[in-house]
Amino acid sequence: MKLALVQMESRMGEIEPNVAAACTYIDQAAEGGADCIVLPEFFSTGYFPVYRDYDYYELASDENGLAISSVKAKAREHRVHIVATYYEQDGSDLYYNASLLIGPDGATVGKYRKVQIPAFRGIEKLFFRPGSKFPVFPMNGWRVGIMLCYDTFFPESARCLALGGAELILVPFGASDTEKSVWREMMITRAFENGAFLAACNSIGAVPMTDGDTFVMGGRSVIVDPIGQVVSEAGRTDGEIVYGEIDRDAVESARKRYFMFRDRRPDAYGIISTQTEEIER
């Protein structure tokens, strides 16, 4: 199967031009032979949670909004799977950072809602309710899981997906500091420790912040194989499409070479799921 990661810039609040740019990239990726195309986190809205501005709630939509409707049409046109993230209003007063796996017929195969919501540079906690599940979906004979950005900071997230059967983990990102941090190494580790392919699709561009600083998206979108080898990766600053050929046989081979699932000891890990107040120190 051939993956394509769309590394692109999305300007804050400019949904129509952002979606148009994404659709152009989708066309190019489909022409390049991609079977599955991944768009970055906040591809349609830009990274708006750097401001405490309640007007940004107006950027939310359901699956019938411009962004997802346009992507679904492209999936039908090119007969490909597409992973697209959007600011979801679920029909009530609840809002989520949600990612859809869209099938070649334009229908939703599955939805993931971001479980871990950060608040260290942006203020995502103001805008999003956290999800609570790590579902796994079928795609072209693969079992596929989705995480979003900050989820990768928690090894439990990828492990939940792998235990649920995921052979491929797709991660839309809106991350800065990919050059100075261990961002790349973290993607490699998550792939290796779970014996799964991992594909992280990041954004580029700069977002001004209220304190006068700038939130610079770090690019470096990357595809990693199940033994932690980089298949392909992007640069830090340019819009581009990262392609990678992946093979399910590599997953089976990795899991026969490194027996983390055989040797894991869930009976010894009780502290991980113990409420913080109940941990004896």
Q: Outline of this structure?
A:
The protein has 281 residues and is of the alpha/beta class.
The sequence of SSEs as H and E is EHEHEEEHEEHEHEEEEEEHH
Could you list the spans in which at least 5 consecutive residues all have pLDDT below 50?
A: none
User: What does the overall shape look like?
Assistant: globular
Helix content: 10-25%
Task: Explain what the structure shows.
This protein is an alpha/beta fold. It has a single domain, classed as Carbon-nitrogen hydrolase (Nitrilase/N-carbamoyl-D-aminoacid amidohydrolase, 4-Layer Sandwich). It is built from 7 helices and 14 strands. It has helices spanning 15-31, 66-78, 124-127, 155-163, 183-194, 248-257, 260-263; strands spanning 2-7, 36-38, 81-89, 95-102, 108-113, 136-139, 142-146, 168-172, 197-201, 204-208, 214-218, 222-224, 230-233, 240-245. The strands form 3 sheets. A 6-stranded mixed β-sheet has the order 5-4-3-2-1-14, with helices on one face. Strands 6-7-8-9-12-13 form a 6-stranded mixed β-sheet, covered by helices on one side. Strands 10-11 form a two-stranded antiparallel sheet. Helix 4 runs parallel beside helix 5 (183-194). It is globular and about 50 Å long. The relative contact order is 0.15.
Relevant terms:
six-stranded mixed beta sheet; Nitrilase/N-carbamoyl-D-aminoacid amidohydrolase; 26% strand; alpha/beta; 281 residues; 25% helix
Please render the helix and strand layout as text.
Layout (H helix, E strand, L loop, with lengths): L1 E6 L7 H17 L4 E3 L27 H13 L2 E9 L5 E8 L5 E6 L10 H4 L8 E4 L2 E5 L8 H9 L4 E5 L10 H12 L2 E5 L2 E5 L5 E5 L3 E3 L5 E4 L6 E6 L2 H10 L2 H4 L18
Parallel strand pairs: 1-2, 2-3, 7-8, 8-9
Antiparallel strand pairs: 1-14, 3-4, 4-5, 6-7, 9-12, 10-11, 12-13
